[in-house]
């Protein structure tokens, strides 16, 4: 057996004798052979699905908001954007009684891409004194921009650019299926990073670098306009309400449309996270370095709280009839077809005879879990004022779950949900003081709380 010393330990290869023993051990176990026949035929998850979890998570809730039909992000990573715009859409449906109403996800998509390009340029300039091999520069170049984002990033877009109805700036091929756009946008941004770093290395002045950056942004604007369409600056909006009455609003701007049809003060909302890791004590506010889109816009901030407080804040907002944006690790222990998110939906550990148990903190620390998807809480089932399951509005169309709605068990909420956004009026006085202070801990760019949904 070949060995080599490394860090005080002997690194050892696998011997033929060890492999023979492993084979004999496996074949001697009848349960292994039973699982082998089932998994080879049906796959791991299908062989492990637990019908008890389906029965426990039937779509009936003591608090169930009427939020209309679900939306569909299609082949794009805009879940965070769809989820946030859906929370506004719910208000428009209730307050203005408009049929089949959606806000333009393409409009906010355009401006998010445009602002992310500038945010990338500014970070490239800021790190221009570092080697390409530095972790920060390598992080920036690995993914110059992507579809994903966080709540505060959409707030920054809306506060600067407003929003428009979907009929005013509808979907395009590149918004609904964004792979090609991202490929060529990131290709350009990496080339532009080379251009900017070279200018600075050659001693160009700050004004010369800024002039070139603006020229590069013009090319970004051109690329986005070609792919997504040119965003409207003024428009007329006509619609029928639920009673069949015709309405016409003339001379609107994206900002005046937001003020008239939504009107929510977005500064009243705060991102709440549950990250039970040692490096993030509860009841403190965190931000993430190099995470954002609009330079000078709203900063991404998270208030970390224990899971009971986390849930109670979401419940308080739902009780008042308002849906809740949330971020989670949707790929963990969930079904796409039936729309069940439950820790016991699959008994993979029994099927494979392997222990996968880790705490929420351990999963975060070891890269096993982070926020991958954003959706909307539109209901909760309370027994003795304690949650047992949650109603979830997804943005994958109406062919999954119950007409697009999922059911999340309360255990799953505890283990795999990381972020909710609530009105700060629901915070305790102590937590209100915490979020209003300037005392913010800055996390590394690659921290799991910087993951983009």
UniProtKB/TrEMBL annotation:
<dbReference type="GO" id="GO:0006508">
    <property type="term" value="P:proteolysis"/>
</dbReference>
<dbReference type="InterPro" id="IPR004134">
    <property type="entry name" value="Peptidase_C1B"/>
</dbReference>
<dbReference type="GO" id="GO:0009636">
    <property type="term" value="P:response to toxic substance"/>
</dbReference>
<dbReference type="GO" id="GO:0043418">
    <property type="term" value="P:homocysteine catabolic process"/>
</dbReference>
<keyword id="KW-0031">Aminopeptidase</keyword>
<keyword id="KW-0378">Hydrolase</keyword>
<dbReference type="InterPro" id="IPR038765">
    <property type="entry name" value="Papain-like_cys_pep_sf"/>
</dbReference>
<feature type="active site">
    <location>
        <position position="394"/>
    </location>
</feature>
<dbReference type="Pfam" id="PF03051">
    <property type="entry name" value="Peptidase_C1_2"/>
</dbReference>
<keyword id="KW-0645">Protease</keyword>
<dbReference type="GO" id="GO:0005737">
    <property type="term" value="C:cytoplasm"/>
</dbReference>
<dbReference type="InterPro" id="IPR025660">
    <property type="entry name" value="Pept_his_AS"/>
</dbReference>
<protein>
    <recommendedName>
        <fullName>Aminopeptidase</fullName>
    </recommendedName>
</protein>
<comment type="similarity">
    <text>Belongs to the peptidase C1 family.</text>
</comment>
<dbReference type="GO" id="GO:0070005">
    <property type="term" value="F:cysteine-type aminopeptidase activity"/>
</dbReference>
<keyword id="KW-0788">Thiol protease</keyword>
<dbReference type="InterPro" id="IPR000169">
    <property type="entry name" value="Pept_cys_AS"/>
</dbReference>
<feature type="active site">
    <location>
        <position position="79"/>
    </location>
</feature>
<feature type="active site">
    <location>
        <position position="373"/>
    </location>
</feature>
């Amino acid at each position: 057996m070949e060995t080599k010393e490394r860090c005080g330990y002997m690194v050892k290869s696998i011997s033929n004798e060890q492999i023979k023993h492993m084979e004999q051990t496996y074949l001697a176990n009848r349960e292994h052979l039973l699982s082998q026949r089932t998994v080879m035929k049906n796959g791991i998850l299908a062989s492990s699905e637990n019908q008890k979890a389906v029965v426990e998570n039937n779509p009936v809730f003591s608090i169930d908001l009427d939020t209309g039909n679900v939306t569909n992000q299609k082949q794009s990573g805009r879940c965070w954007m769809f989820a946030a715009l859906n929370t506004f859409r719910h208000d428009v449906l209730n307050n203005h009684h408009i049929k089949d109403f959606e806000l333009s996800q393409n409009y906010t998509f355009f401006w998010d891409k445009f602002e992310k390009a500038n945010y990338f340029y500014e970070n490239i300039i800021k790190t221009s004194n570092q080697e390409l091999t530095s972790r920060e520069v390598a992080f920036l170049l690995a993914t110059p921009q992507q579809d994903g984002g966080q709540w505060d990033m959409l707030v920054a877009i809306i506060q600067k650019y407003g929003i428009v109805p979907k009929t005013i700036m509808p979907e395009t091929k590149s918004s609904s299926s964004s792979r090609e756009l991202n490929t060529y946008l990131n290709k350009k941004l990496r080339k532009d990073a080379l251009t900017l770093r070279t200018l600075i290395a050659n001693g160009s002045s700050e004004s010369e670098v800024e002039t070139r950056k603006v020229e590069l942004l013009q090319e970004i604007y051109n690329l986005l306009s070609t792919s997504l369409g040119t965003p409207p600056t003024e428009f007329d909006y006509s619609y029928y309400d639920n009673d069949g009455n015709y309405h016409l609003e003339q001379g609107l701007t994206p900002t005046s449309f937001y003020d008239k049809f939504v009107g929510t003060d977005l500064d009243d909302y705060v991102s709440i996270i549950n990250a039970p890791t040692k490096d993030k004590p509860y009841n403190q506010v965190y931000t993430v370095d190099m995470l954002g889109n609009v330079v000078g816009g709203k900063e991404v901030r998270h208030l970390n709280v224990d899971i009971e407080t986390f849930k109670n804040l979401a419940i308080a907002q739902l009780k008042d009839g308002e849906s809740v944006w949330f971020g989670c690790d949707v790929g963990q222990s969930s079904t796409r077809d039936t729309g069940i998110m439950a820790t016991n939906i699959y008994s993979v550990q029994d099927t494979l005879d392997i222990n996968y148990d880790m705490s929420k903190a351990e999963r975060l620390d070891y890269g096993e879990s982070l926020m991958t998807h954003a959706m909307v809480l539109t209901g909760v089932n309370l027994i003795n004022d304690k949650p047992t399951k949650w109603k979830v509005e997804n943005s994958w169309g109406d062919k999954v779950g119950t007409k697009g709605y999922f059911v999340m068990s309360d255990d799953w909420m505890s283990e795999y949900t990381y972020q909710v956004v609530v009105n700060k009026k629901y915070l305790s006085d102590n937590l209100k003081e915490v979020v209003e202070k300037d005392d913010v801990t800055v996390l590394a760019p690659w921290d799991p709380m910087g993951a983009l949904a």
